[in-house]
Design a protein that fits this description.
Layout lengths: L2 H11 L5 E6 L5 H13 L4 E5 L10 H12 L7 H9 L6 E4 L2 H7 L1 H11 L3 E3 L9 H10 L2 E3 L1 E2 L5 H10 L4 E4 L14 H10 L7 E4 L5 H10 L2 E4 L1 H24 L4
Helix pairs in contact: 2-4, 2-11, 4-6, 6-7, 8-9, 10-11
C-alpha cells in the first residue's frame, strides 16, 4: 500500500489535475515553511514534496538554490526536518514526501533517518541522485517500514533503466521532463512524453509524475493529459516571494483547475 499512490489515484478518479507541490523545509525560516506547507496542502495539492536544504545542490535551479541557501542561513539543520514534518502531518492528511540528496541521509544514518521519517508521519522519500542499483539498503528499510520511495527516470535513461525505476519506485516514478536543472520553462521538453511512455511499458501500475520546468496551470493541465501528475517547485517559491501565503494558495488553486483565470 502507498499513501502517495492512493492520493494520486483518488484525485485522478475524481477527474482532477494531480499536483505534486515542492517547498523547502526551513524557508524562509522554519516556522514560515511549516505555515506555507500547510497552506499548500489545504489549497488542494495532492502530494507535498518537502525539500531538504543542502549546501551542494547539483540538480536545483537558481530559485530553489537561493531559497535553500536562505533556509541554511536562517539556521535550519537536518535534525529539524522531522519536527517540520510532524507539524505539517498533524494538521493535514496530504502525503509528505521528503526530497533529499543522498549524502545528508547517509551522514544522518540511513536507518535512523528512515525511522524518524516514519515516526514523523512522512510518506517516504524522493532521492534524485540515488539509482536503484545502489539503493539496496534503502529498498530493504523502506519495505520494512512501508515507506514510499521515488526514483527518477530521465530522457537519457535506457529501456532497462526506465524499467528499473518503475519496478523500484513506490508512490510514483519521477519522470524528468528535460535534461538539466530545475526551473520554470516556457516549453516542456517533448522527451517527457517518451519517458512516461517508457516507464509505463513496465506495466507496474505505479503512477508517473512529470517534473522540472513546469510553471503554469496550462502546463499542469497538459502534463496531466499524458501522465499521472505534475510536479511544480520553482514557480511556487516565486509565488510565495511575490505575495506570501495568500499568493501561494491562489497559485496552487489555479494549478489544480488547470487555468490561470
Amino acid at each position: 500500500m502507498s499513501k502517495t499512490a492512493d492520493a494520486i489515484n483518488s484525485a485522478k478518479s475524481r477527474g482532477e489535475n494531480v499536483v505534486v507541490a515542492y517547498f523547502p523545509a526551513g524557508y524562509p525560516d522554519t516556522k514560515s515553511s511549516i505555515e506555507a506547507c500547510v497552506a499548500i496542502c489545504e489549497a488542494g495539492a495532492d502530494v507535498l514534496e518537502l525539500g531538504v536544504s543542502y549546501s551542494d545542490p547539483v540538480m536545483d535551479g537558481l530559485v530553489i538554490q537561493e531559497a535553500t541557501e536562505q533556509a541554511l542561513a536562517s539556521g535550519f539543520k537536518l535534525n529539524q526536518l522531522f519536527d517540520v514534518i510532524r507539524s505539517i502531518t498533524s494538521k493535514v492528511s496530504t502525503p509528505v514526501l521528503v526530497m533529499s540528496y543522498w549524502n545528508p541521509v547517509l551522514q544522518f544514518g540511513l536507518e535512523r533517518f528512515a525511522n524518524e521519517l516514519k515516526n514523523a508521519g512522512a510518506a517516504g522519500l524522493i532521492t534524485p541522485d540515488l539509482i536503484p542499483d545502489e539503493a539496496k539498503d534503502w529498498l530493504e528499510i523502506s519495505d520494512k517500514l512501508e515507506l514510499d520511495r521515488v526514483f527518477l527516470a530521465t530522457p537519457s535513461s535506457s529501456t532497462e533503466r526506465l524499467a528499473q525505476a518503475a519496478n523500484s519506485s513506490r508512490g510514483f516514478v519521477y519522470a524528468v521532463s528535460t535534461m538539466g536543472i530545475t526551473g520554470a520553462r516556457e516549453d516542456l521538453d517533448k522527451a517527457a512524453r517518451l519517458v512516461v511512455a517508457g516507464v509505463r511499458q513496465s506495466e507496474t501500475g505505479t503512477p508517473v509524475c512529470v517534473g522540472i520546468g513546469i510553471s503554469s496551470a496550462e502546463q499542469v493541465l497538459e502534463v496531466n493529459g499524458y501522465a499521472d501528475g505534475a510536479i511544480v517547485g520553482s514557480a511556487l517559491i516565486k509565488a510565495y516571494q511575490s505575495g506570501g501565503v495568500n499568493e501561494l494558495v491562489n497559485y496552487v488553486r489555479k494549478l489544480k483547475v488547470g487555468s490561470s483565470s
